[in-house]
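## tool: complex_structure
## caller: assistant
## args:
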Amino acid sequence: AQSVTQPDIHITVSEGASLELRCNYSYGATPYLFWYVQSPGQGLQLLLKYFSGDTLVQGIKGFEAEFKRSQSSFNLRKPSVHWSDAAEYFCAVATTSGTYKYIFGTGTRLKVLA
Amino acid sequence: DAMVIQNPRYQVTQFGKPVTLSCSQTLNHNVMYWYQQKSSQAPKLLFHYYDKDFNNEADTPDNFQSRRPNTSFCFLDIRSPGLGDAAMYLCATSPRQGVRPQHFGDGTRLSIL
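## result:
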Protein backbone atom coordinates (compact mmCIF):
# COMPACT_ATOMS: atom_id res chain seq x y z
CA ALA A 1 0.00 0.00 0.00
CA GLN A 2 1.11 3.54 -0.69
CA SER A 3 2.18 5.43 2.39
CA VAL A 4 4.37 8.21 3.70
CA THR A 5 6.01 8.04 7.10
CA GLN A 6 7.46 10.92 9.05
CA PRO A 7 9.01 9.21 12.06
CA ASP A 8 9.49 12.36 14.14
CA ILE A 9 6.32 13.95 15.49
CA HIS A 10 8.18 16.77 17.23
CA ILE A 11 11.69 18.15 16.76
CA THR A 12 13.33 20.93 18.75
CA VAL A 13 16.47 22.68 17.57
CA SER A 14 18.32 25.79 18.59
CA GLU A 15 18.37 28.77 16.29
CA GLY A 16 21.37 28.54 14.00
CA ALA A 17 21.62 24.78 14.29
CA SER A 18 21.23 22.45 11.33
CA LEU A 19 18.01 20.59 10.70
CA GLU A 20 17.02 17.32 9.10
CA LEU A 21 13.42 16.13 8.89
CA ARG A 22 12.91 12.55 7.84
CA CYS A 23 10.45 11.22 5.30
CA ASN A 24 10.10 7.65 4.07
CA TYR A 25 7.68 6.58 1.38
CA SER A 26 6.24 3.38 0.08
CA TYR A 27 5.17 3.65 -3.53
CA GLY A 28 5.44 1.17 -6.36
CA ALA A 29 6.12 3.51 -9.25
CA THR A 30 8.42 6.49 -9.64
CA PRO A 31 7.51 8.78 -6.78
CA TYR A 32 6.68 12.43 -7.14
CA LEU A 33 7.61 13.91 -3.79
CA PHE A 34 6.85 17.18 -2.06
CA TRP A 35 7.61 19.01 1.14
CA TYR A 36 5.13 21.56 2.48
CA VAL A 37 5.29 23.87 5.48
CA GLN A 38 2.29 25.01 7.49
CA SER A 39 2.48 27.90 9.95
CA PRO A 40 -0.18 28.00 12.69
CA GLY A 41 -3.60 28.88 11.31
CA GLN A 42 -2.35 28.97 7.73
CA GLY A 43 -2.55 26.82 4.64
CA LEU A 44 0.26 24.72 3.23
CA GLN A 45 3.12 26.34 1.37
CA LEU A 46 5.24 24.36 -1.06
CA LEU A 47 8.92 24.22 -0.06
CA LEU A 48 10.23 21.98 -2.81
CA LYS A 49 9.42 19.06 -5.06
CA TYR A 50 11.14 16.11 -6.70
CA PHE A 51 9.96 14.69 -9.99
CA SER A 52 13.11 13.33 -11.63
CA GLY A 53 16.71 14.20 -12.39
CA ASP A 54 19.10 15.56 -9.81
CA THR A 55 18.38 13.85 -6.51
CA LEU A 56 19.32 16.93 -4.49
CA VAL A 57 16.65 19.57 -4.89
CA GLN A 58 16.72 23.13 -3.69
CA GLY A 59 13.68 24.90 -2.37
CA ILE A 60 12.58 28.17 -0.91
CA LYS A 61 13.71 29.62 2.42
CA GLY A 62 17.08 27.86 2.22
CA PHE A 63 15.68 24.32 2.38
CA GLU A 64 16.92 21.37 0.37
CA ALA A 65 15.96 17.72 0.17
CA GLU A 66 17.68 14.61 -1.08
CA PHE A 67 15.89 11.76 -2.81
CA LYS A 68 17.42 8.36 -2.06
CA ARG A 69 15.68 5.61 -3.95
CA SER A 70 17.62 2.83 -2.23
CA GLN A 71 16.37 4.03 1.15
CA SER A 72 12.91 5.17 -0.03
CA SER A 73 13.63 8.47 1.65
CA PHE A 74 13.23 12.16 0.90
CA ASN A 75 14.69 13.99 3.86
CA LEU A 76 14.46 17.74 4.25
CA ARG A 77 17.47 19.72 5.42
CA LYS A 78 18.47 23.22 6.31
CA PRO A 79 22.01 24.20 7.36
CA SER A 80 21.00 26.96 9.78
CA VAL A 81 17.51 27.23 11.25
CA HIS A 82 15.84 30.58 11.90
CA TRP A 83 13.19 31.20 14.56
CA SER A 84 10.68 31.84 11.77
CA ASP A 85 11.08 28.23 10.61
CA ALA A 86 9.02 27.02 13.56
CA ALA A 87 6.02 25.35 11.92
CA GLU A 88 4.60 21.98 10.89
CA TYR A 89 6.24 20.22 7.97
CA PHE A 90 4.48 17.70 5.76
CA CYS A 91 5.98 15.29 3.29
CA ALA A 92 3.72 14.04 0.50
CA VAL A 93 3.83 11.69 -2.46
CA ALA A 94 1.55 12.21 -5.44
CA THR A 95 -0.37 9.25 -6.79
CA THR A 96 -0.17 9.02 -10.56
CA SER A 97 -3.25 7.02 -11.41
CA GLY A 98 -6.14 9.15 -12.59
CA THR A 99 -6.25 12.61 -11.08
CA TYR A 100 -3.15 13.27 -9.09
CA LYS A 101 -3.78 13.16 -5.36
CA TYR A 102 -1.47 13.47 -2.39
CA ILE A 103 -0.68 10.96 0.28
CA PHE A 104 0.53 13.00 3.23
CA GLY A 105 2.74 12.00 6.09
CA THR A 106 1.51 12.79 9.58
CA GLY A 107 3.74 15.83 9.86
CA THR A 108 6.66 16.96 12.00
CA ARG A 109 6.24 19.93 14.29
CA LEU A 110 9.42 21.99 14.53
CA LYS A 111 10.18 24.11 17.56
CA VAL A 112 13.09 26.55 17.44
CA LEU A 113 14.81 27.68 20.62
CA ALA A 114 16.24 31.19 20.74
CA ASP B 1 -2.13 38.72 -5.16
CA ALA B 2 -3.54 35.73 -3.30
CA MET B 3 -4.20 32.90 -5.72
CA VAL B 4 -6.44 30.57 -3.70
CA ILE B 5 -8.81 32.47 -1.46
CA GLN B 6 -10.96 30.92 1.20
CA ASN B 7 -13.83 32.68 2.89
CA PRO B 8 -14.46 33.10 5.67
CA ARG B 9 -11.24 32.46 7.58
CA TYR B 10 -13.24 31.59 10.68
CA GLN B 11 -16.74 30.18 10.75
CA VAL B 12 -18.85 29.35 13.75
CA THR B 13 -22.06 27.39 13.35
CA GLN B 14 -24.49 25.55 15.55
CA PHE B 15 -24.78 21.81 15.83
CA GLY B 16 -26.96 20.63 12.95
CA LYS B 17 -27.14 23.99 11.19
CA PRO B 18 -26.01 23.84 7.55
CA VAL B 19 -22.89 25.74 6.67
CA THR B 20 -21.12 26.60 3.41
CA LEU B 21 -17.45 27.32 2.96
CA SER B 22 -16.16 29.10 -0.10
CA CYS B 23 -13.03 28.82 -2.22
CA SER B 24 -12.04 30.89 -5.22
CA GLN B 25 -8.95 30.81 -7.39
CA THR B 26 -7.25 33.10 -9.87
CA LEU B 27 -4.94 30.42 -11.27
CA ASN B 28 -7.44 29.02 -13.78
CA HIS B 29 -6.59 25.53 -12.59
CA ASN B 30 -8.77 22.65 -13.66
CA VAL B 31 -8.60 20.66 -10.44
CA MET B 32 -9.89 21.84 -7.08
CA TYR B 33 -9.59 19.85 -3.86
CA TRP B 34 -11.19 20.04 -0.44
CA TYR B 35 -9.34 18.74 2.60
CA GLN B 36 -10.31 18.41 6.24
CA GLN B 37 -7.51 18.88 8.75
CA LYS B 38 -8.00 18.22 12.43
CA SER B 39 -5.60 19.43 15.06
CA SER B 40 -2.08 18.00 14.75
CA GLN B 41 -3.10 15.75 11.87
CA ALA B 42 -2.34 15.63 8.17
CA PRO B 43 -4.90 17.00 5.73
CA LYS B 44 -7.48 14.42 4.71
CA LEU B 45 -8.87 14.62 1.19
CA LEU B 46 -12.66 14.81 1.12
CA PHE B 47 -13.24 15.16 -2.63
CA HIS B 48 -12.02 16.95 -5.71
CA TYR B 49 -13.27 18.32 -8.98
CA TYR B 50 -11.56 17.59 -12.26
CA ASP B 51 -13.18 20.37 -14.28
CA LYS B 52 -16.86 19.62 -13.66
CA ASP B 53 -16.32 15.98 -12.78
CA PHE B 54 -16.85 15.36 -9.09
CA ASN B 55 -14.70 12.71 -7.38
CA ASN B 56 -15.67 11.69 -3.89
CA GLU B 57 -13.31 9.84 -1.55
CA ALA B 58 -14.74 6.54 -0.41
CA ASP B 59 -14.72 7.45 3.27
CA THR B 60 -16.14 10.97 2.99
CA PRO B 61 -19.40 11.15 4.95
CA ASP B 62 -22.61 11.90 3.03
CA ASN B 63 -22.96 14.97 5.23
CA PHE B 64 -20.32 16.66 3.10
CA GLN B 65 -21.24 17.94 -0.34
CA SER B 66 -19.56 20.19 -2.86
CA ARG B 67 -20.48 22.44 -5.76
CA ARG B 68 -18.38 23.96 -8.48
CA PRO B 69 -20.45 26.41 -10.50
CA ASN B 70 -17.50 27.56 -12.62
CA THR B 71 -13.73 27.19 -12.92
CA SER B 72 -13.00 29.85 -10.32
CA PHE B 73 -15.29 28.86 -7.47
CA CYS B 74 -15.88 25.79 -5.37
CA PHE B 75 -18.05 25.38 -2.29
CA LEU B 76 -18.07 22.91 0.56
CA ASP B 77 -21.49 22.31 2.11
CA ILE B 78 -21.89 20.56 5.43
CA ARG B 79 -25.54 19.67 5.70
CA SER B 80 -25.80 18.89 9.41
CA PRO B 81 -22.55 19.64 11.19
CA GLY B 82 -21.67 17.54 14.18
CA LEU B 83 -19.11 18.29 16.86
CA GLY B 84 -16.68 15.98 15.09
CA ASP B 85 -16.72 18.21 12.02
CA ALA B 86 -14.91 21.01 13.81
CA ALA B 87 -11.66 21.34 11.88
CA MET B 88 -9.64 23.42 9.46
CA TYR B 89 -10.92 23.05 5.91
CA LEU B 90 -8.37 23.58 3.18
CA CYS B 91 -8.98 24.22 -0.48
CA ALA B 92 -6.27 23.50 -3.05
CA THR B 93 -5.91 23.68 -6.81
CA SER B 94 -3.68 22.17 -9.45
CA PRO B 95 -3.44 22.18 -13.23
CA ARG B 96 -4.95 19.25 -15.07
CA GLN B 97 -1.96 18.08 -17.02
CA GLY B 98 0.75 16.04 -15.40
CA VAL B 99 1.84 16.00 -11.83
CA ARG B 100 1.95 19.53 -10.55
CA PRO B 101 2.14 20.92 -7.04
CA GLN B 102 -1.10 21.76 -5.37
CA HIS B 103 -1.64 25.38 -4.34
CA PHE B 104 -3.38 25.79 -1.00
CA GLY B 105 -5.55 28.51 0.43
CA ASP B 106 -5.16 29.67 4.02
CA GLY B 107 -8.11 27.57 5.14
CA THR B 108 -11.33 28.11 7.03
CA ARG B 109 -11.40 27.21 10.71
CA LEU B 110 -14.84 25.78 11.49
CA SER B 111 -16.15 25.69 15.04
CA ILE B 112 -19.36 23.94 16.09
CA LEU B 113 -21.34 25.18 19.09
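## assistant note: The CA atoms of residues 10 and 109 of chain A lie 5 Å apart. The longest strand of chain A covers residues 87-94. Handing back to user.
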